Amino acid sequence: MPRRDSTTKRRSTSTSSFGASGRSSHDSSAFYSRAFQPEIDASNVGEEHAAPEDVLDRIYAHASEDMHELPDGSVHLMVTSPPYNVGKEYDEDLTMEDYRSLLHRVLAETWRVTAPGGRVCVNVANLGRKPYIPLHAYVISDASEIGFQMRGEIIWDKGAGAGTSTAWGSWRSASNPTLRDTHEYILVFQKPHPKTGFGRKAPEGRENTIGRDDFLDSTKSVWHFSPQSAKRANHPAPFPVELPRRLIELYTFSGDVVLDPFVGTGATAIAATATGRRYVGYDTSAEYCATAEERIAESLKDT
Ligand SMILES: C[S@@+](CC[C@H](N)C(=O)[O-])C[C@H]1O[C@@H](n2cnc3c(N)ncnc32)[C@H](O)[C@@H]1O
Predict the structure, then answer these.
(1) Residue 167 domain flag
(2) What is the best residue among 284, 287, 289 to mutate for testing ligand 1's pocket, by most ligand atoms within 8 Å of CB?
(3) Which among 65, 109, 101, 69 is positioned nearest to 85, based on CA atoms?
(4) How far is residue 289's CA from residue 286's CA, in Å, rounded to a whole number?
(5) Cα-Cα-Cα-Cα dihedral of 176, 158, 110, 262, to 10°?
(6) How do residues 267-292 score in pLDDT, each as one tens digit?
(7) Ligand 1 pocket mutation, candidates 283, 287, 295, 299, criterion most atoms within 8 A of CB
């Protein structure tokens, strides 16, 4: 059989109604020009501005509804998990309206600081059982209303670490069985780019760092890894460093700026330094900010 080498031209595929295999060199233009694809409005995305050196690699102990340290358009990736308003020690007992308004204000401020083409990834779990409260749907609705374009939805399968709950409702009875969520969402959005729409070019001197296997794995929409122990991180709702690490490798170039507006114990900052990116974090709890600083310093000793 003749060997295919890098100079062999491949025939491009095109989208069929039920998807296709062999999608490299894929021509999807007909599919994406269909009427239900929204028009992308990039008229209000602003311009990219470099954040001053002295505001970077810092955790700020105040609310992220006002991130005045950051210039407009200075962040390339936001990764966060918002407070859940479920009675954790930092949660205020907000009404749903007030809670959504808090998230909306932080997302709107995130829009201001995000560079054109920058990505925004929100890790969120749904809440409640009677009824089930689809927080992820509210985040999608609010982020879209602000102007972010949705780029995907990752299901984080938390596996055995999350499967121990016995809150199944009525045991082996159709009376009132209840689903036990073993997953969370990572919702991926983008501030459109005025020239490319969705692409982002590497700025001078910055480069891709993601490896082949990581890329193949992280571009699938279901991710499998264990949750972070709350006790070990000294925080009631931490996410593991693996979560921001994957997003940072996938969506940023070396030297890019990564923001976490609800930074907690600093997992996003740790992942950013480990991958050669810059970080900025915000948290209203001075105690968590101190824990984050300690964990970041500790992680730097290991490198
Ligand atoms: C779900 S936790 C984030 C945990 C983090 N991903 C980690 O791995 O440690 C949410 C955090 O948001 C903080 N927080 C609550 N309201 C805030 C606000 N308005 N601005 C900034 N931080 C806030 C809380 O103190 C809490 O640490």
Answers:
(1) no
(2) 284
(3) 101
(4) 5
(5) 90
(6) 999 999 999 999 999 999 999 999 99
(7) 283
Question: Is 112 within the bounds of a domain?
Answer: yes
Cα–Cα distance for residue pair 119/101, rounded to 1 Å: 21
How far, in Å, CA of 251 to CA of 120, rounded? 9
**In 3D, which of 153, 128, 133, 129 has the Cα closest to residue 143?**
153
pLDDT in tens, 16-44: 444 444 555 566 666 666 777 777 888 89
Q: What is the pLDDT of residues 178-216, one digit of tens each?
A: 999 999 999 999 999 998 888 899 999 999 999 999 999
* Domain count across the chain: 1
Q: How far apart are CA 135 and CA 127, in angstroms?
A: 7
Cα(45) to ligand 1 centroid in Å equals 27
> What's this model's pTM, rounded to 2 decimal places?
0.89
Show the ligand 1 pocket: residues with CB < 6 angstroms: 63-65, 81, 83, 90, 235, 237-239, 261-262, 264-265, 267, 282-285, 288
Pocket test for ligand 1, best of 89, 241, 262 (most atoms within 8 A of CB): 262
* Cβ 280 vs Cβ 69: under 8 Å: yes
User: What is the domain range of residue 72?
Assistant: 46-162+181-301
**Within-domain flag for 201:** yes
CA of 86 from ligand 1 middle (Å) equals 13
CATH number, domain of 234, equals 3.40.50.150
The confidence band for 8, taking pLDDT boundaries of 50, 70 and 90, is very low
Asked if the structure places residue 33 within a domain, the reply is: no
